[in-house]
Every structure is written in C-alpha cells, then in structure tokens.
Design brief:
The complex is a heterodimer of chains A (514) and B (335).
Chain A: E1 31-36, H1 41-56, E2 64-70, H2 76-85, H3 92-98, E3 102-105, H4 111-128, E4 134-138, H5 145-154, E5 167-171, H6 179-190, E6 198-200, H7 208-218, E7 232-240, H8 249-274, H9 283-296, H10 302-308, E8 309-315, E9 317-319, E10 322-324, E11 342-348, E12 358-364, E13 371-378, E14 398-404, E15 408-416, E16 424-432, H11 433-436, H12 444-454, H13 463-481, E17 488-491, H14 498-505
Parallel strand pairs in A: 1-2, 1-4, 2-3, 4-5, 5-6, 7-12, 8-17
Antiparallel strand pairs in A: 7-13, 8-11, 9-10, 11-12, 13-14, 14-15, 15-16
Helix pairs in contact in A: 1-3, 1-12, 5-6, 6-13, 8-9, 8-13, 9-13
Chain B: E1 8-15, H1 20-33, E2 39-40, E3 44-49, H2 53-65, E4 72-80, E5 87-99, E6 102-114, H3 121-125, E7 135-139, E8 156-159, H4 167-183, E9 185-188, H5 189-193, H6 195-206, E10 217-224, H7 226-240, E11 247-251, E12 256-261, E13 268-277, E14 280-289, E15 292-293, E16 297-300, H8 305-316, H9 321-330
Helix pairs in contact in B: 2-8, 4-9, 7-9
The chains are: A alpha/beta (514), B alpha/beta (335).
Chain lengths: 514, 335
C-alpha cells in the first residue's frame, strides 16, 4: 500500500519517514467495499469493471474484498462468478481478489440482513485482512438510501470498530427528487453518518476532462484574464445524448432530464466553469468555491421559468441512420407522458465576474449525437477594420471545451483566406487530448472508487452543493408540476424543439452545432 | 479512452555519410507523404545514448514497448568517437497509429556517429528536437561525464544504476551521479524499478501498529545486485537517520530488505522481497510485531521491467529529492 492522501477522519499521526516521494502512487488501504445493490446493473456494468481495472493497475491492496448485499438470493460462489463475468478479460490480480468476495442476501432494511452482514464483515476482516475499514456503497434504487443508512446506524456499522479505521458511505445519484427530499435524505443520513463520512457521487466529476476544466483555467495564464464579463458574450453548456431512455423508461418517468442531468451534471459543469480560483486544489478549496459559484446562480422566479426554461420531449425520428420511436412509445413510458427528455434554460450568474453574461444550458436525449461541451463565445472586437464583404464567414471568437467524446479544446478565431483578395473567415485550432496524451485515462468510476477508499472527497458532492443545486432547479420543478406548462415536442435526431432556438434568438444569439 | 491502435511503420529513409540537413529533410518528406490530417503525437523528445549495437536494440525495444504511452520523437545515438572516417549514418522511421479516432505520428531517428562529431552530440540533437517539449536523454549503460556537451540539451538525464556493469563501475557511477544530481534533473531507472520495494516498506510503516517503530529501526539487511542494494540502503539510512554501520549487504539476484526495529520481545521485523508467483513475479512485504504476524502486502511486477521503468521515468521528469538523498548516503557504503 502506498502512502495515501490522509483521510480527514483519521487521527493525526507522526510522519512516516519512508513515505516522502511516493505520494503520487495512490493505492487503496485495506478495506471491505460493501455494495448494496450488488446483483444490480450498476455493479455489473460499472463497479466491477472499475474495480478490476484498479486491481490490474495495482491500486487495490491484496487486503481488499467486496461484500455484496442484494435482494437476489446468491451464494458467495455465484456472486464471485458474476464479478468475474462482469469483466471481459479479468486480470490475474482480479481473479486473486475475487476469491475473497462474499455475498449477503436480504432486504435492505431488514434487521437479519445487517446482523448477517456484521458477521460476514468480521469473517472478511479475519480472512482477507481488511482491517475493519469499510466503504458502504449505495448502488440501490434511491428510495432505500435512507433506510440502508439508518440500518447501518442501528446495527453499529456506521462507525469504525477501533481507532485508526474508517467507515465511509458512498451515495449514488439521484440525491433526492427535489430540495425537500434531498434535505430529508441528508437528515436521515446524518443521523448515522457524519458529513465527512459521506461521499455523494456524480460520476461526471470523475471524468478526466471535467477535471481538465480546472487545469485549463487555473494552470494557464492566458485564459483566466479573459474569463469574465468583459470579454465573454455568453456561454453555452451542452450535454447531449443520441440514445433514448432504453430500458430505463420506468425510472425516467420518475426523473426526467431536469433531475437526471441538469440538477447534477450540468450544474456541476457550470460551477467548474464559473467558480473563482481556489486558494488550494484540495477538497475544501474546490468545494467551497463551487458552492460559492452555485450560490451566485440567480434562482428564477416562476414567471422567469416560463420565459427562460424550455422543456421538451422527443418524437419519432432518425438518429445516426436508424429510425427510432418517440419517447411515449418507449417501454415503461405512458402514452400521455409529460416527462421532459429535453431541457434548455438561460441562467444568470450574479457576481462581479459574470454579471450580465447569459449562460445557456441544454440537455436532451435523442439529439443528433452524444456530446458534452462548454462553449465560451467572446464579444466582437470593438472595431472591425474590414468591410462586411471581406468578413463574410467570420464569427465571434469561441473557446470550446469538449468534455466527451473526443475530449479536447478548440479555439475559433479569424484568419485571412489565402489569395490576392483580403478576406477573413473563422478557422478552428483544435487540440485533442487523445492525440497528445496516449496515456490510458482512468474511467470515472475507477477514479471515484479509489478516491473513496483513499479518503479524498474532492470529486464528491458536499451536502451544501446538493442543496444549492436543488434550489436552482426548484422553481422549475414547481412550475412544471402544473400540467398546463407547455411541453415542446422535438423530432428525434434534431437539436431540440423550436422553442429552444427562440430562447437564444430573442437575445440575438443562436445555439452552436457541436 | 479508446484503446489506441498499435503503431505501424508508415515509411522510412536511410542514408550513409549524410549531413544532418538531409535527415531533417527526410523527416519532413516522410511526414508530407502521410495523411495530411495526421497529428504528430507529442509528449516528449527522448534521446538515447547507446554504447554498443546491443544497447540500441535493447533501448529501442523498450521505447517501442511504451510507445503508445509516450509518443514523440526518439533520437537514438550510437557514438563511435574512434571510428573513421568521421561522419554520420542515419535511419528515419515514421510510425503511425490511431488514438481516439485521430491518426497520430511519431518518429524514430537513429544516428551512427563516427569520429569527431561523436564529441558534439548536442549539435546533432538540438536541430532534431521538437520545440516546447521536454528533452530526456537516456544514457543506456553509462553515466555522463561532467561537461558532456549533450547535457546542455537535456532537460532530464535518465540513467540506470542497474546497468552500469561491475561493482566497481557501479560505485564509480553512484559517485558521478551524486555530483550530477546537483546540477541536473536525474532519473534513475533502477530507482524506479525499486519503487515497489519502497512503496511496500513505506506502507508497512503507515500502519498504526508499526508507525512508532519507524524511529526505532536498528538493523537493516539489504540483498540484491550492487546497484539496487546501494540505492535501497542509501534511501533507508538517509530517511531513517541511521549510521552506515546499521546496514549489512548480501549479493543476490533480486533485491530484498529486512528491517529490525525495537528491542527484545517487543521488536518488529519488516521484510520485503521479490517472489515468483503462478501468474508472474510480485514483490511481497510482511512483518512481525512483538512476535505476532503483521500484515502481508504485495505488488505485482510488470512483464517488461525496463520498459515499465522508462515509462515511469518519462511520466515524472522532475527532480526527486529523496533519490538525491539516497545517492549521497550510498557513498557511505563500500559494498
């Protein structure tokens, strides 16, 4: 085990003289990862492959074990087989670890489940050497988050058994359905866990390129001076999916794009884009600034919601050469559903840096392609010394941070067209991370699982961040509760409803085509 | 990130008794012949200084093994100052691969340098390096002498204490390196390969039951080849503030360390050694504290240690203060 980032809950100890110079070799300490929802889709698709990758990369201790908890009756052997099957080519390191994995079948709030879990964890400590360290990972449906947290508290599994050990709780999104339920969930969790034990996941923050927004802004002298209202005309943040809701129709009916994407992913990207430079790039420094940024987001009134927010739902169309049905034809979706699959909204950030700069946010399913980007469109030059004929084809400067796919940065600027005539048009200088760094980038879950085990909460969402994000979308939810609110329809394969175009057109702007 | 496609040779050029300008032209010509949209993958300039033909092959194998992680321009130099007539033979190979859907290129330039130009390698390297990228110069089996002109072009010097030859050569090399680290960023591939040993030892003392023993170590036994054991012993006495007399050495094929801390029946013993496993070698650490077995830990070893250590070195490319301490402390030993 490499010396790891000190966990905030650990007691301060004397310095290890052999650890200096090895700080970058992050490795999880011995621990048991208790996964609730262990027979579910998230465990199979995301957690197991991420853990295998960590094992193959020597990031897991040999004293590591997964203890699965789920309603599906499975033996230890069946669970181990599932954890191996979840990975296409399991490494020898993974195969060696899986042999120590255990499974507890039972209801998520049933007393016997947790009694048995306690016994199994003690056995794992003895057999694998997990040392009493626990990371409880809630990969269950959200309606049992509070129940599991409460049961852990009731059965004394929320606190370390002895000094020097840790117990942490990782909570998947969605964290609440609205402000009230998020606060209620916080209250319930805080009855058993201290805030510094709670790690709320938004897997977007585990993406390398989301973290690169910080690197671009705060490691370069040339961008930050123009990163403000004086130079920026407006900002567009796009989180587009070409896929529909697939087999998640039932879930999506209870969520919608506002809860599923805007309240978390979009607002997190917005916060990273607008935040002030942190004094230190540690958990507190970054999260404090993100909360300040979210607090500066102007919370719309109900009237403003009707003007500045568009909700849409896809109809049948063609996407990537395939004919696809409309949302209401998806499995698990009602024929008269009014759940939004698209949201476009204008928000303002009321602070010294961004006053007067509109931020246009949009997200949707069944859009033409999968893309996440932040586009910063700059103001025009004070005086253009060329005629309109010469500058036909010249657009404003833009800096585009592509988060996925094809991660990179593009800068749009004007250049002379070669030839005798003096004509200027926009060109793009395009930087692709993939072509500059061929280094394998860790998957978001790899990064976040390791962070949770190491005890680094920087890329997890703090309670006050969640609360503030819900406050931003709360008026929208309130207005949309009224079924009379228009639901714009858009053709699958288009960039959204016409109403979203009008949202920008009324300000004399238009959406980019990413 | 999508798995990059393995590099393939897109084109090559070879010339005997050529001028450097011809090599540069050949590079440009090869690039022009490729796809116009290809990006040159650009992470580093790696200059390899080989002593003999075998070193060239060994180094090229390692470089290509890690090529997907560290694409860039590789300049392989085989200086033969005593050869005549003075001149330059060159081979240029352009490699192409696809990463994230983008075609990317990297280049290998091999220069066989005969006669007087072999004393002025910097003049050959500077025109070939890609601008704005770090320049790492890897001396495959040697330590650069003070005043080596090539050091002027080197942002980072890569050496390998494990490849310096006899025990005497290693001791001389360690002394030279201790001087070199005062003025240059030096990364030792042997030190990188010892990282699992260092990690596991440090990790043992991260455990609460062993942490107090870190200040009570009184005996250190270090086994291994001379380069590795000097570096490990130097590191331990420097970090634990121990006299050289606390260390005993044994020659062995693979490094191993045993630390004894504390006294009597409260003593702790921490060991780390390489072990052959069914699925490959791994480094294992174990401990006993007051007679009771402590935690065992292990790290698997990569298949190609040279390529792995080179890759680790190229990720870091910065001064390692602890390595400098280890080198200076290693001068205390005659082992």
């Amino acid at each position: 085990m490499a010396p790891s980032t000190p966990s905030p809950e650990a007691a301060p100890e004397a310095v290890n003289p052999l650890a200096e110079g090895l700080e970058s070799d992050r490795r999880a300490p011995p621990c048991a990862l208790v996964v609730y929802g262990a027979s579910g889709d998230l465990t199979h698709r995301k957690l197991a492959p991420a853990l295998e990758a960590l094992a193959a990369d020597r990031r897991l201790s040999p004293n590591f074990a997964v203890v699965g908890v789920g309603r599906t009756p499975l033996s230890d052997e069946e669970f181990r087989a599932r954890m191996l099957e979840a990975v296409s080519k399991p490494s020898a390191a993974w195969e060696a670890l899986v042999g120590g994995f255990r499974y507890v079948a039972g209801g998520y709030t049933d007393g016997p489940t947790f009694e048995r879990l306690r016994e199994v964890l003690d056995e794992v400590d003895a057999a694998v050497g997990t040392d009493g360290n626990r990371v409880h990972y809630l990969a269950t449906p959200p309606d049992v988050f509070a129940g599991v947290a409460g049961a852990l508290g009731e059965h004394g599994l929320n606190e370390p058994g002895r000094q020097g050990c840790f117990v942490r709780l990782v909570v998947e999104k969605p964290y609440g359905r609205d402000l009230a339920s998020a606060l209620a969930l916080d209250d319930a969790i805080h009855e058993s866990f201290r805030e510094e034990q709670v790690y709320r996941i938004d897997h977007y923050l585990g993406k390398e390129t989301v973290q690169n927004v910080l690197a671009l802004r705060f490691a370069n002298a040339i961008f930050e001076p123009i990163w403000n209202r004086r130079y920026v005309d407006h900002v567009q943040i796009t989180v587009a999916e070409s896929l529909g809701v697939g087999h998640r129709g039932g879930f999506y009916e209870t969520a919608g794009a506002l809860r599923d994407i805007v309240q978390n992913h979009v607002l997190q990207v917005l916060a990273l884009t607008v935040m002030e430079p942190p004094a230190t790039v540690d958990a507190k420094g970054i999260r404090d600034e993100k909360v300040k940024a979210l607090r500066a987001v102007d919370i719309p009134t109900h009237d403003e919601v009707t003007i500045d927010v568009v909700r849409g739902q896809y109809e049948a169309g063609w996407v990537e050469g395939e004919e696809v049905g409309g949302y209401r034809q998806e499995k698990g979706v009602g024929p008269d559903s009014r759940t939004e699959t698209y949201v476009a909204m204008r928000v303002d950030v009321d602070n010294w840096r961004w006053a007067g700069v509109p931020f246009y946010l949009r997200t949707g399913k069944r859009l033409p392609k999968r893309v996440t980007e932040v586009s910063m469109e700059f103001r025009d030059v004070p005086h253009l010394p060329f005629g309109s004929k010469e500058t036909r084809g010249l657009g404003p400067n833009a800096l585009v941070l592509r988060i996925q796919p094809d991660e990179g940065i593009a800068l749009r600027f004007g250049a002379k067209v070669p030839g005798q005539a003096f004509r200027v048009r926009s060109v793009a200088m395009d930087f692709a991370y993939g072509a500059a760094f061929l280094e394998e980038t860790p998957d978001a879950y790899e990064r976040l699982l390791l962070d949770a085990m190491v005890g680094d909460p920087t890329l997890f969402i703090r309670a006050d961040e969640v609360e503030q994000a819900w406050k931003v979308v709360a008026p929208v939810q309130e207005v949309w509760t009224d079924d009379a609110t228009p639901l714009a329809r858009y053709r699958a394969g288009s960039w959204g409803p016409r109403e979203a175009d009008r949202l920008l057109e009324r300000d004399g702007r238009r959406w980019r085509s990413p | 990130m999508a798995e990059p496609v393995a590099p393939s040779e897109l084109g090559s050029w070879r010339g005997e008794n050529v001028r450097l300008g011809q090599v540069i032209d050949a590079l440009s010509e090869l690039r022009r012949g490729g796809q116009r949209t290809a990006t040159r993958a650009c992470v580093t300039n790696l200059v390899v200084v080989a002593g003999v033909e075998d070193d060239v092959e060994r180094a090229c194998d390692a470089v290509h093994h890690l090529g997907r992680r560290h694409p860039g321009r590789n300049i392989v130099l085989l200086p033969r100052p005593g050869a005549a007539p003075a001149g330059l033979d060159a081979t240029v190979v352009l490699h192409g691969s696809v990463a994230e859907g983008h075609p990317v290129w990297s280049e290998d330039v091999r220069l066989d340098v005969r006669g007087a130009p072999a004393g002025h390698l910097d003049s050959l390297v500077e025109p070939l390096t890609l601008p704005d990228l770090p320049v790492a110069v890897w001396y495959v089996r040697s330590v650069p002498r003070p005043g080596d002109p090539l050091l002027r072009a080197a942002g980072t010097v890569l050496v390998d204490t494990g490849s310096l030859g006899s025990a005497d050569d290693v001791r001389t090399g360690v002394a030279d390196l201790a001087r070199l680290t005062r003025r240059h960023v030096v990364i030792d591939l042997c030190w990188e390969r010892l990282r699992p040993w260092r990690q596991l030892l440090a990790a043992q003392f991260d455990l609460p039951q062993l942490r107090p023993y870190a200040s009570q170590v009184r005996e250190i036994a270090v086994d291994g080849p001379v380069g590795a054991r000097l570096l490990l012993a130097g590191w331990l006495v420097a970090r634990l503030a121990l006299p050289a007399s606390a260390v005993t050495f044994t020659d062995a094929a693979s490094p191993a360390v045993r630390l004894v801390a504390g006294d009597g029946n409260q003593a702790a013993v921490v060991s780390v050694a390489e072990v052959a496993g069914a699925t490959g070698a791994f480094v294992r650490s174990w401990a006993t504290v007051a007679g009771r077995a402590g935690r065992e830990d292990r790290l698997s070893q990569p298949d190609d240690l040279l390529a792995w250590s080179l890759g680790e070195a190229l990720i870091r490319l910065r001064r390692d203060r602890v390595y400098g301490q280890a080198l200076h402390a290693a001068l205390l030993f005659g082992a």
